[in-house]
């Protein structure tokens, strides 16, 4: 016998083998057009980070998700002249965590994250210079 429970915005449905023997009668719910996380990129209109953005490639979840969020948040909200220079400890913690899971976080992924951070820093500098 199946049962369901709600956890925040998620609905979790547990089923048994017997439940799978009959066709599903589940109803799909249409996407909410007013969902603030849909149709936005990495940064929401209010300036917050959209952790649900597919552009993060799932980095915000998994065993090092909290370290990733701490490092990325620090960098995003950094007000230092060299953006992110105050985030070395957070990025180090993230890197140390990722090194514990080489199958999940291959070296190329770390290189790509560093390139993204450098690219975002350069873009921020350009925007500051044109203001």
Description of the molecule:
The structure is a single chain. The chain has 131 residues and is mostly helical. The mean pLDDT is 79. It is elongated. The longest helix has 24 residues, at 107-130. It has four helices and two strands, in the order E-E-H-H-H-H. It has a two-stranded antiparallel ribbon. Residues 103-131 are annotated as: Disordered. Keywords: Disulfide bond, Mitochondrion, Oxidoreductase, Protein transport, Redox-active center, Translocation, Transport. It comes from Phocoena sinus.
Shape, principal axes of CA atoms: elongated
Parts with pLDDT < 50 across at least 5 consecutive residues: none
Q: Radius of gyration, Cα only, in angstroms?
A: 20 Å
Order of helical and strand elements: EEHHHH
Number of helices: 4
Number of strands: 2
Residue share in β-strands: 5-15%
Mean pLDDT: 79
What proportion of the residues is helical, as a percent range? 40-55%
Strand order of the largest sheet: 1-2
End-to-end Cα distance = 62 Å
Task: List its traits.
131 residues; elongated; protein transport; mainly alpha; two-stranded antiparallel ribbon; 2 strands
């Amino acid at each position: 016998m199946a049962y369901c429970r709600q956890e925040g915005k998620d609905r979790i449905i547990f089923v048994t083998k017997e439940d799978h023997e009959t066709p599903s009668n589940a109803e799909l719910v249409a996407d909410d057009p007013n969902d603030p996380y849909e149709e936005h990129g990495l940064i929401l209109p209010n300036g917050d980070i959209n952790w649900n953005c597919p552009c993060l490639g799932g980095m915000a979840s998994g065993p090092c998700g909290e370290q990733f969020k701490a490092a990325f948040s620090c960098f995003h909200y950094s007000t230092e002249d060299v953006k992110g220079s105050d985030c070395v400890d957070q990025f180090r913690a993230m890197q140390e965590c990722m090194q514990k899971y080489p199958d999940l976080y291959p070296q190329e992924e770390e290189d790509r994250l560093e390139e993204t951070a450098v690219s975002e820093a350069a873009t921020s500098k350009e925007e500051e210079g044109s203001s």
